[in-house]
Write a structure and sequence with these properties.
Chain B: InterPro entries: Znf-RING_euk, Znf_RING, Znf_RING/FYVE/PHD, Znf_RING_CS, Znf_TRAF. Chain B: This is TRAF-like signal transducer. Chain B: GO terms for molecular function: zinc ion binding. Chain B: It holds the Pfam family zf-RING_UBOX. The structure holds two protein chains of two kinds. Chain A has three helices and four strands. By secondary structure, chain A is of the alpha+beta class. Chain A folds into two domains: about 120 residues, Ubiquitin Conjugating Enzyme, CATH 3.10.110.10; about 35 residues. In chain A, strands 1-2-3-4 form a four-stranded antiparallel β-sheet. In chain A, β1 and β2 form a beta hairpin. Chain A is elongated. By secondary structure, chain B is mostly helical. Chain B folds into four domains: about 130 residues, Zinc/RING finger domain, C3HC4 (zinc finger) (Herpes Virus-1), CATH 3.30.40.10; about 60 residues, 2-Layer Sandwich (Herpes Virus-1); about 70 residues, no CATH class; about 80 residues. Chain B starts with a helix and ends with a helix. The chains are: A alpha+beta, B mainly alpha. Chains A and B meet through α1 of A and α2 of B.
C-alpha cells in the first residue's frame, strides 16, 4: 500500500517532467515498470545511437527495500530493438553490478528517476567495450572439477590394482 | 533523543488514526521542499537529523529499522549518508504550519463528501463535522440485538435504529415465538403453526390446517393423489390451447387471403361489366338514347353482374375446350407422323443390318478358308513350296468367289498379286 502510493506519485511526477535521455517504456501496473535510457554523450562510440531498456521490479516494501533493476533485451527485429549495453559491470543477461541497487547501498530517498540517472551516468563514464570476466571464472571452476574427478579416479585405480595383486 | 529512544517512541505512538494523511488527495500543488523524500508526501510529524535533513517520523522509523547495522548507535542519513546518532523532534514551527496548510479533499469523497479543508483540519473534520462518516450500529444498548456489525451512516442512523436493523426482534404472528428480524422470513417458511392450504388447493380441496397437520391430511386427500394426473391434463390442455391459437391465426390469414381474392374477382368482373356496358352503349346510344341505359343500369346491378359473369366464364370455358380439342388433334397428328418416320427409319436400319450380316458371314468364311491351309502348313513342314504355290492359286479363286453381289467388281479388280488385308474386303461389301 505504501509502495503503491509512492510509485503513483513518482509516476505522476515523471509524466509531468522527465530528465533528458530517460523515457517511460511501460508502466501499466505498480509492480513492474520498464524504462528506456539513452547515453547522451555522442562521442562515446560504444553506446552511440542505442537505446537500452531497464526493468524495475518493486516489492511491496519499496522504497525501504531496493527494487530489482536489470537490463532486458528486445530482439533487433522488433519495432523497438533494445540490446544489453557493453559494460564491465553489466552481465550479458542484463544483471547490473551496482552498489546503489544492493540492499546495503540503497537509500529510501532514491527514486526510479534517480536510479535511471545513476545508470545513465555509469554508462556515460565507461570507455571499455567489455563484459565482466564471467567466462574466465566459470572455466576455472570446470577445470577444477575435472582435476578433482581425475584424482578420484586415480585413487580408485590404485585400490583395484591392490586387490588384483592380492595385497 | 538517541536512536533507541526514537524507536521506542515510534513503537508507542502506533496510534489508530482515523485518517491516513499520506493517502489524502491533495487539491493544490505543494512545494517539493515540503515533501518527505521517503514517502513523497508533505511531512507528517516531521523529525530532524543532525545533518538538518527532515523526514516523517514513521518513514524514518522504518528506514532506521532496515538500515541500521546491528545494534550500533548510529545509522546513515537516507539523504546524505552522514552517520547519525541523535534525532530531534523539534522542527521549525514554520515547516509544520506550511504542511498543515495544504488543501486536501475529505477522504470520504467516495461516500459523497465534497468538502475541501486544510490538511491540519481534516482529522477533526472527519471526526466531528463530516456527515458521511460510517458509524458502527450501537445495537447492544438500543435494541438488544447480538450480532449487528453493520456500518451505518450517521444521517441514516435513526431510521436504522428503529426499523432496519436486522437484529431487532420480531414476533411470529402464528406461533407467538420471538425471532430476530433477519431470520423471520425463514422462520415463517418453516413455522409449524402457520396455517397453510392443502397441496391440492388449486384442484378444489378447500381444507386449511396447520403445517404440522398437513402431512396427515395430504395422505387422505383424494385430490392430492390424482394431482399428478390433473397436472398432466393441465399441461396437455395448455399445449392444445396453444396449437388452437396458432391454427386460429392461420385461419384468419387464409380468410384474409380469400377475401382479397374475392375482392379482386369482383373488381375484374366489374371492369368487364363496364366494358360490356360501354360496348353496348355505343349502338344503344344510336337507337334508344342515353335514358334507356340509365334506367336499365341501376335496376339490375347484382343480377346482371352474376349472369354476365356466368356467361363470360362459360364462353371462356367453351373457347378453352376448343383449344384443347385442337391440341389433341394436333397431338394425334404428330403421333402418327412420328410413328411413320420411326418405322421408315427402322426398315432402313434393318436392311443395313442384313447387309452387314451378310458381309460379316462372307468374311468369316474367307478367314476359315485361309486358316485351314495354314494349319496344314504347320503340320506338314516339308511341303512348304508346293503349298505356297497352291495358296496363290486359291487366293485368286477366293476373291472371285467369296465376294458376291455388289462388291464382286472391286474384288476382281484387286487381282491375284495384291496381298489381302483383314480390313479390306468387309467394308467394300457393305457399301451401298
Amino acid at each position: 500500500m505504501f509502495a503503491n502510493k509512492r510509485l503513483s506519485k513518482e509516476l505522476l511526477k515523471m509524466q509531468d517532467h522527465i530528465p533528458p535521455g530517460i523515457s517511460i517504456g511501460k508502466s501499466d501496473n505498480l509492480e513492474e515498470w520498464q524504462m528506456d535510457i539513452k547515453v547522451l554523450d555522442d562521442n562515446n562510440p560504444i553506446y552511440k545511437g542505442h537505446t537500452y531498456r531497464l526493468k524495475f521490479t518493486f516489492s511491496n516494501k519499496y522504497p525501504i527495500e531496493p527494487p530489482e533493476v536489470q537490463f532486458i533485451e528486445l530482439p533487433s527485429t522488433s519495432d523497438t530493438p533494445r540490446p544489453i549495453p557493453m559494460h564491465p559491470h553489466i552481465y550479458s543477461n542484463g544483471i547490473i553490478c551496482l552498489d546503489l541497487l544492493s540492499s546495503s547501498g540503497w537509500s529510501p530517498v532514491q527514486t526510479v528517476e534517480s536510479v535511471c540517472m545513476s545508470i545513465q551516468s555509469m554508462l556515460t563514464a565507461n570507455s571499455r567495450n567489455e563484459r565482466p570476466p564471467v567466462i574466465a571464472s566459470s572455466w576455472r571452476i570446470i577445470v577444477g572439477a575435472f582435476e578433482i574427478f581425475r584424482s578420484f579416479m586415480r585413487m580408485i585405480m590404485f585400490d583395484v590394482v591392490c586387490v588384483l595383486n592380492g595385497i | 533523543m538517541d536512536i533507541q529512544d526514537f524507536l521506542a517512541m515510534e513503537a508507542n505512538s502506533d496510534r489508530d488514526d482515523l485518517v491516513d494523511l499520506r493517502a489524502l488527495d491533495f487539491v493544490s500543488s505543494y512545494d517539493s521542499h515540503l515533501m518527505c523524500p521517503i514517502c513523497h508526501c508533505p511531512f507528517v510529524q516531521p523529525v530532524r537529523l543532525q545533518c538538518d535533513h527532515v523526514f516523517c517520523q514513521k518513514c524514518l522509523g522504518s528506514a532506521i529499522t532496515t538500515f541500521r547495522s546491528a545494534d550500533s548507535d548510529e545509522f546513515p542519513c537516507p539523504s546524505c549518508r552522514t552517520p547519525t546518532t541523535r534525532i530531534s523532534t523539534r522542527v521549525p514551527r514554520l515547516l509544520v504550519n506550511m504542511c498543515d496548510e495544504i488543501q486536501v479533499r475529505c477522504p470520504l469523497v467516495g461516500e459523497g463528501c465534497n468538502e475541501i479543508v486544510p490538511r491540519g483540519h481534516v482529522q477533526s473534520h472527519v471526526e466531528k463535522y463530516c456527515g458521511y462518516r460510517l458509524l458502527p450500529c450501537p445495537d447492544e444498548s438500543y435494541c438488544r440485538c447480538e450480532r449487528c456489525n453493520e456500518d451505518v451512516m450517521e444521517q441514516d442512523f435513526a431510521e436504522h435504529d428503529k426499523e432496519l436493523c436486522p437484529s431487532l426482534e420480531a414476533t411470529c404472528d402464528d406461533c407467538g415465538s420471538i425471532v430476530p428480524r433477519r431470520s423471520l422470513k425463514k422462520h415463517v417458511e418453516t413455522c409449524p403453526d402457520v396455517v397453510s392450504a392443502c397441496a391440492a388447493s388449486q384442484y378444489g380441496c378447500s381444507v386449511k390446517v396447520r403445517r404440522a397437520d398437513i402431512a396427515a391430511h395430504e395422505q387422505q386427500c383424494p385430490l392430492v393423489s390424482i394431482g399428478p394426473y390433473l397436472e398432466a391434463q393441465n399441461t396437455r390442455l395448455n399445449s392444445l390451447e396453444l396449437t388452437m391459437r396458432h391454427l386460429q391465426q392461420r385461419n384468419e390469414i387464409f380468410e384474409d387471403g380469400m377475401a382479397n381474392i374475392r375482392s379482386t374477382l369482383l373488381e375484374s368482373a366489374r371492369v368487364s361489366d363496364a366494358d360490356r356496358n360501354g360496348g353496348r352503349s355505343a349502338p344503344n346510344g344510336d337507337r334508344d338514347g342515353q335514358a334507356l341505359i340509365d334506367a336499365e343500369d341501376p335496376a339490375d346491378p347484382a343480377n346482371s353482374f352474376s349472369s354476365h359473369t356466368t356467361q363470360y366464364l362459360l364462353s371462356l370455358h367453351e373457347s378453352l375446350r376448343e383449344e384443347v380439342s385442337q391440341m389433341s388433334h394436333a397431338l394425334t397428328d404428330l403421333d402418327a407422323r412420328a410413328s411413320m418416320t420411326i418405322m421408315n427409319e427402322c426398315l432402313r436400319i434393318k436392311e443395313d443390318m442384313a447387309h452387314t450380316n451378310a458381309a460379316l458371314n462372307s468374311v468369316r468364311m474367307q478367314v476359315q478358308w485361309l486358316m485351314n491351309p495354314r494349319l496344314h502348313n504347320g503340320t506338314r513342314a516339308n511341303g512348304m513350296r508346293t503349298n505356297s504355290a497352291s495358296n496363290e492359286s486359291t487366293r485368286t479363286q477366293l476373291t472371285s468367289t467369296s465376294a458376291p453381289g455388289p462388291s464382286s467388281g472391286t474384288g476382281v479388280s484387286l487381282g491375284p498379286l495384291r496381298p489381302r488385308r483383314p480390313s479390306d474386303s468387309g467394308r467394300e461389301g457393305t457399301k451401298l
